[in-house]
From TrEMBL:
This is Beta-glucosidase. GO terms for molecular function: beta-glucosidase activity. It holds the Pfam family Glyco_hydro_1. It comes from Malus baccata. Gene3D superfamilies: Glycosidases. InterPro entries: GH (IPR017853), Glyco_hydro_1 (IPR001360). The keyword DNA-binding does not apply. One of its GO terms (biological process) is carbohydrate metabolic process. Keywords: Glycosidase, Hydrolase. It comes from the Eukaryota.
Amino acid sequence: MAEDQAYGITTPTNIQEDVGIMKNMGMDSYRFSISWSRLLPNGKLSGGVNMEGIKYYNNLIDELLRSGLTPFVTLFHWDIPQALVDEYGGLLSPRIVDHFKDYADLCFMHFGDRVKHWLTLNEPFTADQNGAIGLAVVTHWFEPASKAKKDIDAANRALDFMFGWFMDPITTGDYPRSMRTYVGSRLPQFTKEQSDSLNGSYDFIGINYYSARYASNPLENSSDPESYINDPHVNATTEVNGKPIGPRAASDWLYIYPKGIHDLMIYTKEKYNDPAIYITENGVDEFTNSSLSLEQALNDTIRVNYYRDHLCHLQAAIQSGAKVKGYFAWSILDNFEWAEGYRSRFGLNYVDYDGALTRYPKRSANWFKTFLKKSQRNMKNIQVSADDNDEDIKLVYQI
């Protein structure tokens, strides 16, 4: 199968099928992204609106609502229109702000009557349409490599540079103090108007959590060049003294560390004014392996264990007062991953890439269906324990 993103896995012809999978599993919400280029091929309103793109998302949103699922929409997921990149460098130019605003306004105008949860930096139409605006931030959790204060400080700096880079401006109006210290004059200054506009500019926080790292303080005489990677002055590693922080998944960046989701929720609660939180992504991948039979490929025990363990720790965070309002598994289907393409699979449902994109429920899909039924789809009523298993679960639907 060609590795392009014309439609990805969900095409106009199988919207009903995919929404049916979600409904059958007992899910009540679906998070998806809108492609800027699909609506505005040239990136600008002046270049014309692709009404077929509007129709596609209208059909998806309407089908979700008919099936009792709430749409959560991300306006930007790394797909800058190529025309804007060619014209002025895309995100490297402040000119993109007005063009993104026009794109966001277009989405609010066409979909805002039905979509009430948006993941975006902009806030037009929020009051008029009774919607909620948030920002999805991806971050690792960072464990100090030792109990030494310098390593504890290093872990906090690592969080500042990966998480606080976005969280501090919207909760305080400025970048983290550690970034100001270590980046210095290379870090832009906010005007008072910008700072006031940023501070409190959200209704909820979306957090994408997959993995964790150990953090330690580097040698004082380090002469590494200035860069985003080096500026925090942190050695972030996946092991200490030969002991990994957790098992590695297919992706070389994903080491499984369930406790991190608990610690990250408590950290967010305590540092960032106790916000409403949605886990907007959480999941684990396996390699695509053409030598496996379909039955073997569907037996994804690693994914069952990943979700069980993470949800146990998330449950503990909620019981400790974290305001977690929702959870989105990544992902419903095997899909095109930015780094790995179709070579790795995150899905709860298997997609046959070599055939007609037929969907098959994996063991994890059936585990999730039972979990959702037990929890009654209520974040305050998560029913999962460390010894939960799915030995007695049968394939309850076929696609």
